[in-house]
Prior knowledge:
By secondary structure, this protein is mainly α. It is 76% helix and 0% strand. It has helices at residues 2-17, 20-30, 42-65, 67-76. It is flat and about 70 Å long.
Amino acid sequence: MAMLCSVLRMLDKSSSLTRPKEILKETKRTIYGKPPRHRVGAAQSFFVMSVFAAAMLAPAAWILYHLPEYRERAQHVPRT
């Protein structure tokens, strides 16, 4: 009986699935946009990407540079 009820519920909901154009119209109503106020130039894009790359790579480079020191410390520390 429960299976029959779930199938009937699916059939009632399937009516909304057969009308994709109406669903698309509803989503288009909620999505809106405007053109940008200021255009972003190539120099600005390059600068921002460079800063982003430096922010990501600088900590990794620092860790890799100091990796031999970390290895020496790990060997000298006695384990209990």
